[in-house]
Structures are given as structure tokens and as C-alpha cells.
Amino acid sequence: MSSRIPLIYSPKVLELFRNPKNLGAIPDAEIHGTAGSLACGDMIAIYIKLSSDGKTIEKASFESYGCAANIAAASIMTEMIKGKSLEEAWNIDWKTITEELGGLPSVKYHCGVLAVGALRRAIRKYFEDKKDKPNWLPEDLTHEEKHAIEEEKLMEQLSKRVQSLK
Q1: CA 5 vs CA 1, 2, 18, 52, 69: distances in Å
Q2: Deepest of 24, 26, 116, 141, by most Cβ within 10 A of its Cβ?
Q3: What is the predicted pLDDT for the residue at 29?
Q4: Is the separation of the CB atoms in 74 and 116 below 8 Å?
Q5: With contact defined as beta carbons under 8 Å apart, do 136 and 90 qualify?
Q6: Average pLDDT per run of 10 along the chain, which is 166 residues long?
Q7: Alpha-carbon span 8 to 44, nearest angstrom
Q8: Helix, strand, coil % over all residues of the chain, rounded to 5
Q9: CA atoms within a 13 Å half-sphere pointing along the CA-CB vector of 31
Q10: Could you confirm whether 67 is annotated as catalytic?
Q11: Are strands 31-37 and 42-50 parallel, antiparallel or unpaired?
């Protein structure tokens, strides 16, 4: 008998988990990035296709390897950023994603953080590659970007520890 208590998800999370929107890669995406680690089971890859004038997000999609909350967070985020400028997309935070999902269990807040971390990492890389940093892009990494890095480092350390036990 399992001692785990099932998590209670909102109807919106369950709907987006069962029927995710914008799932899959965009082969000709101008912007893409990942956050998380397959080792822990939560990983998000984000793909963005810009409009022909490069000012707005025409398409956004994701690939997620994770739980229901992870898939729902990435799905709703791609819906929220379509039609927005990169600056507007950058300003979406994990709390807004959580609210749009009708809430997440507190142990799943990191799924919204990870989705925003992937988005911001992708946008930052896009401008670094262009060597054209806009004024609104902060010099320092945001909480969400740092969280993604910390989670990846933790999984790397745990993976090495498990390998050393074999």
C-alpha cells in the first residue's frame, strides 16, 4: 500500500495535461531553450517562431518530460505568450501561470518556475546570439533562470552519486 497522498489538481491542469496545447517542436523556430533535467523527470523545451517583422511571437510550442503540472504549465504559458512581444513574454512570471491554471499544489510551484525559466533562458540566448541586448533585458539572471540552473546542478550531482554506488 502506498503512503503517497494523491495531489489535487484544478480542472484546468487536468484538461491541459490530457489535451496539451502547442505540443511539439517548431523546426524553424528562431528561439528555443530548455530548462530542467531528465534525471529528475521535469524538463521543458520551448520553441518560439516570431512574426515576419520580428516584433511579436507568432507561434510558441513546447516539449515537456514531466508530471501533469509541468505539462499544464508549459501548455498554458505557450498560449499566454502568443501574439505578445518578447518583452511582454519575458514579464510573465510563474505566479501568473499558476493563477491561470487555477492554482497548483505548493509542491508543484516549481513547474511554473521551470516553464518561465525555460522561456527566459530562450529569450536571453536569442538576444545574446544576436549581440543586441534590449534595455528591458536584465543583466542578472532572474529567480526563474537561477532555479533552472540549480535544479540541473542538483540532478547532475545526484546522478554522479548514484553512478558511484554502482
Answers
A1: 11, 8, 21, 49, 16
A2: 116
A3: 96
A4: no
A5: yes
A6: 74 95 96 80 91 95 92 96 97 95 89 91 95 94 85 78 81
A7: 22
A8: 50, 15, 35
A9: 30
A10: no
A11: antiparallel
Residue 49: closest CA among 20, 26, 33: 26
* Helices 11-18 and 68-81: angle between axes, nearest 10 degrees: 90
Confidence (pLDDT) at 146: 87
Of the candidates 40, 67, 137, 141, the residue annotated as catalytic is 40
CA–CA dist 148, 143 (Å, integer): 9
Q: Is 107 exposed, middle or buried (0-12, 13-18, 19+ CB in 10 A)?
A: exposed
Helix (H) or strand (E) holding 11: helix 11-18
At 18 the three-state DSSP class reads helix
Q: Which 3 state secondary structure label does DSSP give 10?
A: coil
Q: Output phi, psi for 50, to 5 deg.
A: -90, 160
From the candidates 60, 81, 101, 111, which is the catalytic residue?
111
59 membership: H or E segment, kind and range: strand 57-65
DSSP for 108-160, written as a single string: GHHHHHHHHHHHHHHHHHHHHHHT---TTS-SSPPHHHHHHHHHHHHHHHHHH
Distance from C-alpha of 77 to C-alpha of 97, rounded to nearest angstrom = 7
